[in-house]
Design a protein that fits this description.
The protein is of the alpha+beta class and 508 residues long. Among the domains are: 205 residues, 3-Layer(bba) Sandwich (FAD/NAD(P)-binding domain), CATH 3.50.50.60; 134 residues, no CATH class. 34% of the residues lie in helices and 19% in strands. It has a seven-stranded mixed β-sheet. A six-stranded mixed β-sheet has the order 7-2-1-11-20-19. Strands 8-9-10 form a three-stranded antiparallel β-sheet, with no helix packed on it. Strand 9 and strand 10 form a beta hairpin. The radius of gyration is 24 Å and the shape is globular. One of its GO terms (molecular function) is nucleotide binding. InterPro entries: FAD/NAD-bd_sf, Flavin-dep_Halogenase_NPB, Flavin_halogenase, Trp_halogen. It comes from Paraglaciecola hydrolytica.
């Protein structure tokens, strides 16, 4: 018996912004030589939230997979480079630590590097873990590397991401998608019509224009126009684990060269971010309104920023969590319509790209199969839960007790999976990564170490190694990293020579 095909012939994307145009670009690229039509409707009236302006390395892989030139993209989006995130005042006020991308050290005689480092610490060595991270050392020295000169050096496997202007990303991907044949329609959705079976049939615009489709992608932001208001998918609220529920944002002029990392500073009722682009800096304060008023948050942010402000402060309320059915019937939710996790580890754009990649692997026909949909939703939920637990780790391990917010964080309930991970790690520094997890052991080691969480012991097999040789090996590794780092150009010099972005006009 031959399999029957009932292919989707038209996809309608409701909402633009970063999520909408990533979807349009990705699907437009896949179906560029087919009869499948893609239409995107957005309203310039509504605008975009624009919180996700820092990325993680997988985003660059997603851009490259579309055939987009990295240098052209960097220049068009005012992007700068990012080696990781510097966390200030999280464990205690006055302390800082770094979460780098990429590997930390190398295994020695088959032994995990972290275990080797634990052994040296137990023997009295005080060299910090980050001394063995190329990305951390490049950040500390304000450097970027020449990728073509880094081969066969300790920097060869260094991983970077980007800081970028989310509005410019949307504009860039819009041009890219339209060149692939995606149709953009300006308008505001007034009404959604469903078929008798419950699937979405069409969206009607205020102008009277009606868009019918076989499949719909909801990128309408927090309101979830299709996935929630129409299909009533439900929302899983994670406020008990992540109490912050508001953010205030503002843009400022750069003061000095942009550093190649994001800064996340713990504040009295949450944390602030600083994301340096080539010609401006993005700033924000993520906070809990139970411990801080909007005006107090605005005042805190404005007192913390460097340089004159370019925009008025903007307050954005949110509820941390995920739709119970990110894919429901003939509708897929993406971006803020799908769920929200505060941007502490810059995962928003990654979740859009990863969800799309999974959707493409399970791409449906017009006969929506509940088995396929259930498995998709299960996997997306796992992705969100993994990131949620990693974010909670930053809060629940704090030793701060100077404000009601931090006292709450130190005593709040934490998810079962995170409890198990903490308990397992506390014995001997063990971490067992799952399948397709975003945060690998080095990320967990970085946060555990930075927050002062140490295991009771190292793995006893390390005692079989000659400690003198082990100590020398680690010292040489650090010295080799530092020698290479000192030979690299500054971040600013690299940007100016290889991918300078034109200064934006003052037009609104």
């Amino acid at each position: 018996m031959q399999p029957t095909q009932d292919p989707i012939k038209k996809i309608v994307i409701v909402g633009g912004g970063t999520a909408g145009w990533i979807a349009a670009a990705t699907l437009g690229n896949i179906f560029k030589n087919s009869d499948l039509k893609i239409e995107l409707v957005e309203s310039e009236e509504i605008g975009i939230i624009g919180v996700g302006e820092a990325t993680i390395p997988p985003f660059l892989a997603a851009i490259k997979s579309l055939g987009i030139d990295e240098v052209d993209f960097i220049q068009a989006t005012q992007a700068s480079f990012k080696w990781g995130i510097k966390f200030e005042d999280w464990r205690q006020k006055g302390e800082a630590f770094f979460h780098p991308f990429g590997s930390i050290g190398r295994s020695i005689d088959g032994h995990d590097f972290y275990q080797c480092w634990l052994k040296t610490q137990a023997e009295g060595d005080t060299t910090p873990l980050m001394a063995h991270s190329p990305e951390a050392m490049l950040s500390e020295n304000g450097r970027f590397f020449l990728p073509f000169n880094a081969m066969n050096t300790p920097l060869a496997n260094a991983q970077y991401a980007l800081h970028l202007d989310s509005a410019l990303v949307g504009q860039y991907l819009r041009r890219f998608a339209e060149n692939l044949g995606v149709t953009r329609i300006e308008g505001k959705v007034e009404r959604v019509e469903c078929k008798p079976c419950g699937d979405i049939n069409s969206v009607s615009l205020v102008s009277g224009h009606v868009l019918t489709g076989d499949f719909f992608i909801d990128c309408s932001g927090f309101q979830g126009l299709l996935i929630e208001q129409t299909l009533k998918s439900g929302y899983e609220n994670w406020s008990e684990y992540l109490p912050c529920n508001r953010a205030v944002t503002v843009q400022t002029e750069n003061v000095g060269p942009p550093p190649p990392y994001t800064v996340a500073t713990a504040r009295d009722a949450g944390w602030t971010w600083r994301i340096p682009l080539q010609h401006r800096t993005g700033n924000g304060y993520v906070y809990c309104d139970k411990y801080c008023t909007d005006q107090e948050a605005i005042d805190t942010l404005l007192s913390a920023v460097e340089g004159p402000t370019l925009t008025e402060p903007r307050v954005i309320p949110f509820v941390t969590g995920i739709r119970k059915k990110p894919w429901n019937r003939n509708c897929l939710a993406l971006g803020l319509a799908q769920g929200f996790l505060e941007p502490l580890e810059s995962t928003a754009i990654h979740l859009v790209s990863k969800t799309l990649a999974l959707f493409v692997r399970m791409f449906p026909d017009n006969q929506q199969d509940p088995i396929q949909i259930d498995e998709f939703n299960r996997r997306v939920l796992l992705d969100y839960q993994e990131i949620r637990d990693f974010l909670v780790l930053h809060y629940c391990t704090t030793q701060r007790s100077d404000t009601p917010f931090w006292r709450h964080c130190a005593s709040m309930p934490i998810p079962t999976n995170l409890q198990q991970k903490l308990a397992f790690f506390s014995v001997a520094g063990g971490l067992i990564p799952g399948v397709e997890e975003l945060f690998q052991p080095n990320s967990w080691y970085s946060i555990f170490t930075g927050m002062g969480v140490q295991p009771q012991r190292y793995n006893p097999t390390l005692d079989a190694l000659d400690y003198g040789k082990l100590h020398v090996s680690l010292q040489r590794g650090h010295q080799a990293i530092m020698q290479c780092v000192q030979q690299q150009p500054t971040h600013q010099a690299f940007l100016q020579q290889y991918c300078p972005a034109p200064k934006p006009s003052n037009k609104l």
